[in-house]
Structure formats: C-alpha cells, structure tokens
Design a protein that fits this description.
Chain A is mainly alpha-helical and 41 residues long. Chain A has two helices and no strands. Classes of the chains: A mainly alpha (41), B mainly alpha (406).
Chain lengths: 41, 406
C-alpha cells in the first residue's frame, strides 16, 4: 500500500510543481494573452 | 447585272439571318435571372425557411457581400459610409473571417471577433456529445451491475494456501497508481467541465459551484502531467509483457472464464483481457494526452488541419461519404475540434476503466492484492496466471494427476 500512497503524494507534488514551473516559464494565460502595455495584477 | 443584284440580296438575307441567330444565341447565353433580385441580393424567405428546416444553404452570396470601398460613395456624399462599406457589410466580413483586423494584444487569434462555425460546436457539445457520452457511462455501470447480479464475485476456486508470491514490484505499483490516481481525478474534474454547469448548479447553486469549478479546472490542468508520466512508466514496464501470444487465443475462446465457473484458461503475466486493456489505455492515453496538450497551450498546437489534409490524401473521408474534410481551419475551430476529440476519447476511456476498476476490486477475489500490496496468494496465481506462476516459481501450476481446466 505504500507505493499507492507514495503515488498519490507524487500526483499532488507534480501538480503543484507543474503549476509553478509553467507560470515561471511564462505560460500563464495572463502572460500569453497580453503585452507589456497591459497591467493585469 | 440581275445576277449581281440577286447575289447582293442573297448575301444581305444571309447576313441578316446570321446576325439574328447571333443575337438570339447571345440572348440565350445571357445570365439567368438573379434568384435574389426581389431582396436585392439579401437572403430570401426561401433561404430562411430552408435554414429553419435544417437544410444546407449555400451562403456564398452572404460571404461575398462584404462591400467594395473602391465603388462606394465617399463619406462626404449623402449615402457615403466611413470606410466605404455599410454596417451589415462590415459585420458580414467579420463574421465570415474576411475582414482585416489589427489588434494590439499579443494573444494568438485575438483578431477574431465573431466565429461563425462556433455555433455548430456549441450545439454538438451540448447535444450529442453530452447525451451519447453520458448514456455510454450509465450503460456500462448498468452492465456491470447486471454482471455482478448474475455472476457474482469471481472467487478463488481452490483453498487459499496463505503463501504469497510477489506479482508486482514497488515501482510497478507506483507507476500504476500514479496513472490510476491521476485518471480518477482527471475523470471527475473532466466530467465537471462538461456537465458541471447543467447538473451541479441546480443542485448546489452558483455561489457553491464557482469555487468547486475553479478548483476543478486547476486540478484537471495540473494533474495531467502526472497522468502522462504514469502512462510512460506503465508502457516502459509492461509493453513487452502485453505482446499477444498463442495462449491469448485460448483465453479469448472461453471468454477468459468470466462467464462460466471453474474455467481457468492459460495466461502468462497478463491475460488476453488485460492485454486488451493495456493497448486501449496506451492508444487512448496517447490520443487524450496529445489533444490535451493542444488544449493546455491554446492556439499553439493546431492538429486537425494537417490531420484532415492527410486523411483527404488517403481518400478515407471520401470513401465514408463525407466528401473532403476542411484542410484549412480557423484557430478557434482547431481548439473546438481538440475539445470534442478529447471528450469523445475520454468517454470511451472512462467506460473501459469502469470495467477495469470493477474487476480489480469487487469483481474478482484476490485481484486487488496484486496492486495493493503486490503479493498474491499462490492459489490465485495458479488459477488465473498459471504460466506466469510456473515461470516465476518453477513449480507446476496444476496437479499433474488432474486435468487442467482448458
């Protein structure tokens, strides 16, 4: 059962890491759909 | 002299005949009466009624009625318009994608103001996609319930020995649960994306639904990576074991023993039924991942125009009576087709996995242990994967004195 729990933890970690990494890499909708003249935050 | 006059008369008569015939012929080749002359080129009552009946109407006359600035009155004249086209002509150009639009936004496809073909997608998503998909899942659940009622739980026939052998190693189980756990999350959130507004808002209201839907979208987009990693791992570990062999024919011939008691056809590490699931998961998983990536990175990965062009070249759509598929698609059309394909594959995928989950939990005694702890009872292994048991332990799966149930 340990492998199963580890896998579930891995899913959560991968999801958080992917969200963070893609945002940093400039793939968030905010970045892709706007230009330097737009203030969204 | 008379002869010359006669010749002149004859010549003039012939000339007149030729000219008359010529003008008559010209009159016949003249353009036929404009069918939309009554409305001055706009759609007629017949067009409207045909569209309401769901018939195909050729909209070329509207698509091309986008005005001609070169021939228009200048803005300073009485009926002159700014830009040389009237408002309806401008909106037609925007609707049919022939207007030149310049935007300051960097976003892809930002210059699209109206997308005419989007209505077809919307109707399909709300209609056939939702209903056929939903009924497929309900039908599979009903079939599984019926199977359980008729067949019951498939028990281990012989006495459990209490001795276990290792079926799946830790890393194999990790890979499976990475794939399975993410699949369940993606399935639930995916169904929410399609049905949530229609099914959940009437139940829990807008205020409660909104944070759930936002979270669901985040989960669906970000858990997809774990799914793709799990798919790669499962393929690497098990591809070799899922190549069909001659034992699979024997297994399939008796339906795997699913529909009859005490029938245990031969199987190595994976039986034929499991191989079918493996290859389905691989093919559907890759397809759903590729369309999913296209949806994750909007307008960056158009797939359908090229696919349709290749299919047209192979002649398949023509053979199916669909004619040529469009090989030039608008950006939003590409995204919409990606969404439809992703959802159709998802429904088929979920239907198969519901059966897989059933067999691995309720359906077969001893099956879950294989993926849970990795250890299975020797009796279970002898009955369900006899050839694999013999390979792993070196001991015979069946008592030589008795007849194997093949």
């Amino acid at each position: 059962m340990k492998s199963m729990y580890l896998a579930f933890v891995a899913i959560v970690v991968l999801a958080l890491a992917a969200d963070f990494a893609l945002d940093r890499a400039g793939f968030s909708s905010q970045e892709v759909a706007s230009g330097p003249a737009v203030r969204l935050d | 002299m008379a002869t010359i006059t006669q010749r002149l008369l004859a010549f003039s008569a012939a000339l007149m005949l030729v000219l008359l015939q010529g003008t008559a012929a010209l009159a016949q080749e003249a353009a036929p009466a404009d069918p939309r002359a009554a409305t001055g080129g706009a759609q007629t009552l017949e067009d409207i009624l045909a569209r309401q009946r769901g018939e195909h109407v050729d909209y070329t006359f509207r698509r091309e009625a986008t005005g001609d600035p070169a021939k228009a009155a200048r803005a300073t004249e009485q009926l002159g318009t700014l830009g040389g086209v009237s408002d309806p002509e401008l909106w037609r150009a925007l609707r049919y994608g022939s207007a030149e639009v310049i935007v300051s936004s960097r976003a892809p496809a930002a210059e699209v103001v109206i997308q005419d073909s989007g209505m077809t997608w919307l109707a399909f998503r709300k209609g056939p996609l939702s209903s056929y998909g939903g009924y497929l899942l309900l039908g599979v659940l009903a079939a599984l319930a019926l199977f359980y009622l008729l067949r019951g739980r498939i028990r281990i026939d012989g006495e459990k020995t209490g001795i276990t052998i290792l079926r799946f190693s830790a890393i194999e189980r990790f890979a499976h649960w990475l794939l399975a756990g993410s699949f369940v999350l993606l399935g639930i959130t995916g169904l929410t994306l399609l049905f949530g507004r229609r099914v959940l808002i009437p139940l829990i209201g807008h205020e409660a639904y909104s944070p759930y839907a936002i979270a669901g979208k985040w989960v669906h987009n970000n858990v997809s990576w774990a799914f793709m990693l799990g798919l790669v791992m499962v393929t690497v570990f098990w591809l070799v074991h899922n190549i069909p062999n001659r034992h699979d024919l024997k297994w399939l011939a008796v339906g795997g023993g699913l529909f009859s008691k005490h029938v245990h056809p031969p199987a190595k590490k994976f039986n034929a039924g499991q191989k079918i699931i493996f290859w389905a998961v691989l093919v559907l998983g890759v397809s759903i991942s590729v369309s999913g990536l296209s949806l994750l990175f909007p307008f960056q990965m158009p797939l359908f125009a090229a696919t349709f062009a290749k299919l047209n070249a192979l002649g398949l759509p023509q053979m199916a009576g669909l004619g040529e598929l469009p090989s030039q698609l608008l950006p939003h059309q590409e995204m919409q087709l990606a969404q439809l394909w992703h959802a159709i594959v998802a429904f088929v995928f979920m239907a198969l996995i519901l059966a897989h989950i059933y067999l691995g939990t309720l359906g077969m005694e001893g099956a879950f242990d294989a993926m849970g702890t990795g250890q299975v009872d020797e009796q279970w292994a002898k009955e369900h994967h006899g050839l694999w048991y013999e390979e792993v332990t070196g001991k015979p799966a069946h008592d030589p004195a008795s007849h194997p149930a093949e």
